[in-house]
Amino acid sequence: MLNTHVAMALLDRGVTLNWDDGATLHKITAQARYHTQHSASIQTLRIGAQQKVNDEPLTLTASDSALEAFWTWTERAPGWSAALVVRNKSESDLFIDALEVVRVDSAFGGVFSLGAPTGLWRCAHDVEPLAWEAWSDSAGSAGGFLRQAALLVQPSMSNRSSPPAVLIRALGAGRAPAADETGRAVSLPPAGIPTEMRLEVTGERFERFAARARADGLLLASGVSLASPECWIVAGDDAAELLALT
Q1: What is this structure's pTM?
Q2: Among 26, 57, 85, 176, which residue carries the largest CB count within 10 Å?
Q3: Positions in the chain whose pLDDT score sits under 50
Q4: How many folded domains does the chain comprise?
Q5: Contact 121, 115 (CB under 8 A)
Q6: pLDDT tens per residue across span 132-148
Q7: Within a domain: residue 1?
Q8: Tens of pLDDT along 196-225?
Q9: Quick one: pLDDT at residue 131?
Q10: Contacts of 195 (CB under 8 A, 6+ apart)
């Protein structure tokens, strides 16, 4: 059954999603990774809940000397979706390496909880969605799970009424913000730039999760905006039902 009882709040400088008797994702943030034409060193612009520019849809923003970011959250029943748009506000070309639309990092106080130790977590396969890959310290999943367009995770057992499952899926590209008055806005085509979902866990604890668009050095000219795919987050206890959602 889908869990539609989800509360969204801005807490601890991030976004929190909490499902009744289900999963909790606390201190969700976003970040853009880029470099300049003069240096290959990666620069990181982190976006949290410190600066809000709109309530409907909820839009959070951050900027540095080169990049401006708009992080938008929209209620998309039965869950929530997030998208990230960045604009090159400098006078020089930038190169976007990745847009991390949803990021939860335990090192910064983030929590990804399913009511069970991470050693009991399992992830649906890309090719055979209802075949599970369980965490194992002697297999390829020793560091966690890596998927492309969608990641579905559910523990084999839990202290909830039913083991909660969470699905994070990349949808189509988002829209450029109204603040971009140049009209020179580009967006990520759904099949043009790969997405990646990486869930890092050990047998004892959650480390981090990131849903990202891998731009891999995509040129972003001065004044141009780039929109990530929209990432949809839904939850329930029936994996097949979650995978059937469109």
Answers
A1: 0.91
A2: 85
A3: 174-184, 189-190
A4: 1
A5: no
A6: 998 876 666 668 899 99
A7: no
A8: 999 999 888 999 999 999 999 999 999 999
A9: 87
A10: 148, 149, 170, 211, 212, 213, 214, 229
For residue 106 the two structure tokens come to 């335990």
- SS (HEC) of the chain: CECCCEEEEEECCEEEEEECCCCEEEEEEEEEEEEECCEEEEEEEEECCCCEEEECCEEEEEECCCEEEEEEEEEECCEEEEEEEEEECCCCCEEEEEEEEEEEEHHHCCEEECCCCHHHEEEECCCCCCCEEECCCCCCCCCEEEECCEEEEEECCCCCCCCCEEEEEEEEECCCCCCCCCCCEEECCCCCCCEEEEEEECCCCEEEEEEEEEEEEEEECCCCEEECEEEEEEEECCHHHHHCCC
The Cα 186–Cα 163 span in angstroms is 40
List the CATH number of the domain containing 68: 2.70.98
What is the model's pLDDT at position 185? 52
Residue 28's closest CA among 87, 132, 108?
108
Q: What is the pLDDT of residue 136?
A: 79
Residue 190 pLDDT = 46
225 in any annotated domain: yes
Domain that holds residue 232: 6-243
Rounded CA-CA distance 34/13 in Å is 23
